[in-house]
Write a structure and sequence with these properties.
Largest sheet: 7 strands, parallel
Order of helices and strands: EHEHEHEHEHEHEHEHEHEHEHEEHHHH
Structural class: alpha/beta
Strand content: 5-15%
Strand order of the largest sheet: 3-2-1-4-5-6-7
Shape: globular
Radius of gyration: 22 Å
Number of strands: 13
Helix content: 40-55%
Mean pLDDT: 89
C-alpha cells in the first residue's frame, strides 16, 4: 500500500509549544501507513527534534531574525520555491502548515500543485485591516483551518475566516509520557535558601510573555516569604528580546533581588523542572491561544497561576484547578502567589483537580482522532485505500 505522505512545515527553527505539539501528533502515526516529512529552518534546535520524529527533514530558508520588507519578501519567495521542490521530490499528498506564517508559505504552493493544505493556527489575530485581507485571501487557498482554542477560533471569525472551514481542536498531551519524562533523580531546581518555595516561569523571553510582570511581583512576595526562589526557564531569540532580558537582569540587580532569581535558559528537561516546582506562573500580557506550559503544569499536578487572557480560561477554572489574575497586574499576581503559599493543602487539592481536567479534556486520543478526521475531510475521496484503512486504538494510529 502506498503510504500517505504528509509534509509538516514550521516557519521557525525554535522549539516552542506549537512545535512540540506537532511532534507529539506525528509520533502517534503508524509508520506502516504514513510517511512524515518535516520542514523547518535550521537556525534553531527544531530540526534536531524533527530528525528524531520524521522520516525526512528538509531545510526551509527562513530566519527568525530577518527584518525589513524586502528581506522578508525574498525569504518568503525562496521558501515557497523550497516547499515546491520538497513537495515534488517526496510526492506529498497533504501539507500540514503548523503556524500562520507556515500557511502563508505553503498555501499558494499547495493550491498550484493541487494538494490540500491544513492551516494550524496558534495565534490570536487582532481585527486589523491587514489581517482581514490576509485571512480572507488564504482561507480560500486552504482546505481546513485548525484553531487551537475557542479564543483563536473567535479571532479568526472576526477577521473573516469562513466558519465552515474552521475546526477547533485543542492541543493535547499524553499524561503518562509527561509524567515519565518529568522523572528525575537530580535536584534540578536548587533553592539556595534550602526549604523555600520554588516558583517557575517558563517560555520564550520576550515582552509579550510578561517576565517583567513576575519580576515586579517578586519584592512583595519576598516580604512575606523571604526563602522563596524564582526560576526563569527559556531564552531570547530576537535582538529586541535579548535587550529585554538584559533590562530584566539590570532591574533585578537594581532592586537587590538578583540572588533570588535563577536564569535557566533553554532546557530540554523542562518537565522535570516543573515537576519540582511549587508554583508555575504564566504572565502573558498579549492573548495567549493555549499555552503549553499551563497545560503541562496542570497535567503534572502543579499549582498554576495564569494570566486571564486568550485561551487560558478554557484550561484553568479560577479557584478550582488553579488561579487566574488580571493580565499585567503584578500586585494581583503577588497576592495570588501569597495565597497559595499560605494554604498548601488547598493548593494541592486544586493541583490534583487540574490534572483530572487535563485527563478529561486535553487528551492525546481525542486530539489524534480529530486531526485524522480532518485529514480525511481535506483529502476527500482521492485516497480511498487510505481512508478505508481501519483505525487503531492507542499508539500506531492510521486513517
Amino acid at each position: 500500500m502506498d503510504k500517505l505522505r504528509v509534509l509538516y512545515i514550521n516557519h521557525t527553527g525554535n522549539v516552542s509549544g506549537a512545535e512540540i505539539l506537532i511532534i507529539r501528533v506525528t509520533d502517534e502515526l503508524d509508520p506502516q501507513y504514513f510517511e512524515k516529512i518535516g520542514m523547518c529552518p535550521f537556525d534553531g534546535k527544531l530540526h534536531e527534534r524533527f530528525a528524531e520524529a520524521m522520516d525526512h527533514v528538509e531545510s526551509l530558508p527562513m530566519q527568525s531574525t530577518t527584518t525589513g520588507f524586502y528581506s522578508r519578501f525574498k525569504q518568503y519567495a525562496s521558501s515557497m520555491a523550497a516547499v515546491y521542490r520538497v513537495m515534488v521530490k517526496h510526492r506529498v499528498h497533504l501539507v500540514h502548515a503548523n503556524s500562520f506564517r507556515a500557511a502563508l508559505i505553503a498555501a499558494p504552493v499547495g493550491l498550484f500543485l493541487g494538494k490540500p493544505v491544513i492551516w494550524h493556527m496558534y495565534d490570536i489575530l487582532q481585527p486589523k485591516l491587514k489581517n482581514v485581507f490576509v485571512v480572507r485571501l488564504y482561507s480560500r487557498m486552504v482546505k481546513k483551518i485548525v484553531a487551537v482554542s475557542n479564543a483563536t477560533r473567535d479571532a479568526l471569525l472576526r477577521v473573516g475566516a469562513p466558519k465552515s472551514k474552521i475546526k477547533r481542536i485543542y492541543n493535547c498531551l499524553d499524561r503518562e509520557k509527561i509524567f515519565e519524562n518529568a522523572q528525575s533523580d537530580q535536584e534540578l531546581l536548587v533553592n539556595p535558601a534550602g526549604d523555600g518555595p520554588k516558583i517557575v516561569m517558563s517560555g520564550q523571553i520576550t515582552p509579550w510573555k510578561g517576565q517583567d510582570v513576575l519580576l515586579n511581583a517578586i519584592p512583595t512576595i519576598l516580604s512575606t516569604h523571604p526563602k522563596a526562589h524564582f526560576y526563569f526557564i527559556g531564552e531570547s531569540h530576537l535582538p529586541a528580546d535579548k535587550e529585554f532580558q538584559a533590562q530584566l537582569k539590570e532591574q533585578a540587580q537594581a532592586v537587590g533581588i538578583e540572588d533570588k532569581i535563577t536564569w535557566m535558559g533553554f532546557r530540554r528537561d523542562g518537565l522535570a523542572m516543573w515537576k519540582q516546582a511549587d508554583i508555575i506562573v504564566h504572565c502573558s500580557v498579549y492573548p495567549d491561544p493555549l499555552p503549553t506550559v499551563v497545560m503541562e503544569g496542570m497535567a503534572l499536578e502543579r499549582l498554576v497561576i495564569a494570566s486571564d487572557i486568550g485561551g487560558v480560561p478554557e484550561m484553568v477554572i479560577d479557584g478550582v484547578t488553579g488561579h487566574l489574575y488580571s493580565p499585567g497586574n503584578s500586585a494581583a499576581l503577588a497576592k495570588k502567589i501569597e495565597e497559595v503559599l499560605a494554604d498548601p493543602t488547598e493548593a494541592a487539592q486544586m493541583a490534583k483537580q487540574a490534572g483530572e481536567r487535563v485527563a478529561e479534556i486535553f487528551t492525546m486520543d481525542k486530539n489524534i482522532k480529530e486531526i485524522l478526521d480532518l485529514y480525511k475531510e481535506a483529502l476527500g475521496t482521492n485516497r480511498k485505500h487510505q481512508l478505508a484503512a481501519p483505525q487503531h486504538e492507542g499508539n500506531g494510529r492510521m486513517i
